[in-house]
Amino acid sequence: AIANFDRALEIRPRDFWAWFKRGDALRHLKRYEEALLNYDRALTIQPDDEYAWYNKACCYAILGNADLAIENLQKAICLHPSEYKTLAKTDPDFQQIRGNQQFQALLQGGVN
To answer: Is a pLDDT exceeding 90 seen at residue 33?
Structure first.
């Protein structure tokens, strides 16, 4: 799949969905740092995409970086509050940071 996205991006380097889905493929392969780079590229094209912000938050949470996970999750929540607060409460990707006070505060109401 990644090779196919690479070919697509050679033709259309500003294709949001190709960068986003390439990030998803890398995330499923547990290549989280690479996935993050792809989500970043996608967000340079479409900065208000809540899915990319949420997936970045998941990657950072899995990597144990609570601060960046919360920062990116907050951006997803700002774009679509009910969906991402609900998802994050049970998403296993957030298991490592579930006890973090800022994470809990974000899910309950908000973090500045």
So the answer is: yes
Cα 26 to its chain centre, rounded Å, is 12
DSSP assignment of the chain equals -HHHHHHHHHH-TT-HHHHHHHHHHHHHTT-HHHHHHHHHHHHHH-TT-HHHHHHHHHHHHHTT-HHHHHHHHHHHHHHSHHHHHHHHHH-GGGGGGTT-HHHHHHHHT---
Alpha carbon of residue 38 to chain centroid: 10
Tokens of 12: 């259309």
Each residue's pLDDT tens digit, 8-31: 889 999 999 999 999 999 999 999
CA-based nearest residue to 61, from 42, 88, 26: 88
Residue 97, classified by CB atoms within 10 Å of its CB into exposed (0-12), middle (13-18) or buried (19+), is buried
